[in-house]
Design a protein that fits this description.
The complex is a heterodimer of chains A (about 325) and B (about 325). With about 325 residues, chain A is α+β, with helices and mostly antiparallel strands. Chain A is built from 10 helices and 11 strands. Classes of the chains: A alpha+beta (about 325), B alpha+beta (about 325).
Chain lengths: ~325, ~325
């Protein structure tokens, strides 16, 4: 079978206990987690750089097939070597679950392992993709098909000054969304917008152009308005994010939401969440002195129904309300 | 977007070290241009190195210069009291750029390194000498309304889109770089390259180098400066033509003048002959008109951008008349 599902990575210094806690917390979030806790220690071998990532891989054969599959190698220009060796190892077996003696030993073996040359003859050298050399470590008796997973330990990843994620690997991103601490496991290429909509189910934030031109995806990050399609979720580790779902206090709407309703400041509504989030920031920034000023400072939000007249009126109206 | 790896670097030296050993990697600060370039296939990177935690985001003024940290956000620089007071053209150029959201995200270093808006460059299905060297330039005979009338050639006529770079060019800024070979400082006049036969090489940066700061010398002329940006809609648009100008006069006589132009050249355009034509003379409509004619003397307009020859001269008249109190 072809391996499917995501790989999550741990930082190398994450202890077995932290790994188990991380897997448990993912399970609590309703994610499919492998039944057997097994790992592969990865090494980036374009250079001497060591990622220190340890992947949870349940279906080792499937994973190897996935990595070596010609279609994937062609598509991603990924090179061998891949899974090198199989060592029986179960996380729960570690003699020292606090420091992870077995993991340390595997890391040492990994660093000593020789680097294979790139066997793809037709790949130009300068397009060389970062290659993962992996020593697979799996629990004895693991054979069942399933998804491979790994995870960054929540606290260690969030607190780390520097960390790395290999291409194709995933990482856990911790952020506060609408006041709630959330953890999302995702690849670096996932935008904040997609993380909010597709992973957290917060579909109030809209995807319009997905290239920073329309403003429908506007959210507040650490109190400032940003276009969530133009930032990667992984770059917002530890951030405080507010979406349109986070404005109301229970049944009581935010003054900007009230003002949009009062002024009939929308037609189809697709741009409205972005307009509202932008308006909240615009008012906080103090750019509501005149109609012209509001128009200038709301210019990052387009409305294809052209309800601008009423949007400007709503922002001016809400600004009065907020200042009161 | 194709899959890529990601590393958060903890210091400038570490960022440069990681870049040196990671093939096909690039730095990311705001990501506001980079993400679109990668989506469009105009650029491909296997690895992004996040430079937001390097401690190079401060804005500081000392006796001799203003220093903009490379990861300072556009908004912070535009709002900075010292920038507004002593370098208004920088603040105005920044506030005329992008949207409030993007100005909260985009960094100074990234602003300088944003890629051209040329539609052929951004469309990975089109030939483009900048994107795929040797593949040709469809803009020369195609849609070239947004393209350069100065500094182009048979290989490329794309303009540089940064407003900030135009303002920094007028003020003789210096770009600080850190790379595998160590630190160096490059005057902005040497930072952007003419396309020549290698339009893919846009700056003097060497592989693996990171912008760490931009310095602007403190001068009295910078305090009397403005940015005029002409575009196809009132706001949230790239320049068709722009002018950054700083002017110091005594009586009517021009003591010092600095001029740089956007939207007309293949790089932020400065022509010292134009400034020399004004310096030491009374600032009159005639003097400005003569300077403007000098500016476009070597212009090579194309079918779609012929209007820029006249427009840039009118923009010069407008901004200098305002700055010089002629109207």
């Amino acid at each position: 079978m072809i391996y499917h599902g995501s790989r999550l990575t741990f930082k190398a210094d994450t202890t077995p206990r932290q790994r188990m806690e991380a897997l448990d917390s993912l399970r609590e979030q309703g994610r499919t987690i492998p039944s057997v806790r097994s790992f592969a220690v990865g090494r980036d071998h374009s250079g001497e750089y060591e990622w220190g990532a340890i992947f949870v891989i349940e279906d080792l054969d499937g994973y190897r097939e996935f990595l070596t599959h010609p279609a994937r190698r062609r598509a991603d220009r990924i090179a061998l070597p891949l899974v090198e060796d199989i060592v029986s190892f179960d996380l729960t077996d570690d003699t020292d679950p606090e420091t992870g003696a077995k993991i340390a030993e595997l890391r040492r073996l990994l660093l000593e392992a020789p680097v294979e040359p790139d066997p793809l003859p037709d790949r130009p050298a300068h397009t060389r993709r970062t290659v993962l050399k992996a020593i697979a470590v799996t629990a004895a008796g693991t054979a069942a098909a399933g998804t491979g997973v790994a995870a960054a330990a929540p606290r260690t990843a969030a607190a780390a000054q520097a960390y790395a994620v290999a291409p194709g690997a995933s990482v856990e991103v911790a952020m506060t969304v609408n006041g709630q601490p959330r953890k999302i496991v995702l690849e670096p290429r996932v935008t904040l917008l997609d993380a909010l909509r597709e992973r957290l189910g917060l579909t109030g934030t809209k995807k319009g152009c997905d290239r920073g031109e329309c403003g429908a995806c506007t959210v507040l990050v650490d109190g400032e308005r940003v276009k969530s399609c133009l930032t990667l979720a992984v770059m917002r580790q530890g951030a405080e994010v507010t979406t349109v779902e986070g404005l109301a206090r229970g049944e009581e709407l935010h003054p900007v939401q009230e003002a949009f309703i009062r002024n009939d400041a929308f037609q189809c509504g697709a741009c409205t969440p972005g307009q509202i989030m932008s308006a909240v920031a615009c008012i906080n920034e103090g750019h509501t002195g005149s109609e012209a000023e509001i128009r200038e400072w709301m210019s990052g939000n387009l409305c294809r129904c052209a309800a601008y007249q009423n949007i400007v009126a709503a922002v001016a109206d809400a600004a009065k309300e907020v200042r009161r | 977007m194709r899959a890529f790896g990601y590393t958060v670097a903890g210091s400038p030296a570490e960022a440069v070290r990681i870049a040196a050993r990671t093939p096909d990697s690039t730095f990311v600060a705001g990501g506001t241009d980079l993400l679109n370039l990668m989506r469009d296939g105009a650029e491909a990177h296997d690895h992004l190195i996040d430079v937001n935690r390097l401690g190079i985001g401060e804005v500081a003024l000392d006796r001799r210069r203003l220093r903009l940290g490379a990861t300072a956000r556009m908004r912070r620089v535009a709002e900075h009291p010292a920038v507004r007071r002593e370098f208004p053209v920088l603040s105005e150029a920044l506030l005329a750029s992008a949207s409030p959201q993007v100005r909260n995200m985009a960094s100074i270093g990234g602003n300088l390194l944003q890629r051209t808006r040329c539609g052929y460059f951004r469309d990975s299905a089109s030939p483009c000498n900048k994107r795929v060297p040797g593949s040709g330039c469809p803009a020369i005979t195609g849609h070239n309304r947004g393209h350069a009338i100065l500094g182009g050639g048979d290989h490329c006529i794309a303009t540089h889109p940064s407003d900030l770079a135009v303002a920094l060019t007028a003020l003789d800024a210096t770009v600080g770089l850190l790379g595998p070979g160590g630190e160096r400082a490059v005057p902005i006049a040497d930072f952007y390259l003419l396309p020549g036969s290698t339009p893919e090489q846009e700056t003097a940066m060497r592989p693996g180098e990171l912008i760490t700061w931009v310095d602007v010398p403190r001068t009295s002329v910078a305090g009397h400066s403005r940015y005029l940006k002409l575009r196809d809609r009132a706001t949230f648009e790239f320049a068709v033509v722009s002018v950054a100008a700083a002017l110091r006069t005594r009586g009517r006589v021009v003591q010092d003048v600095r001029l740089a132009f956007g939207g007309v050249g293949t790089r932020p355009w400065r022509d010292l002959r134009v400034e020399a034509a004004l310096r030491g003379r009374p600032l009159t409509g005639q003097a400005i008109a003569e300077a403007g004619r000098l500016l476009v003397a070597d212009a090579k307009p194309y079918e779609g951008n012929r209007f820029k020859v006249e427009l840039v001269q009118r923009a010069l008249v407008s901004i200098l008349s305002d700055l010089g109190g002629l109207r």
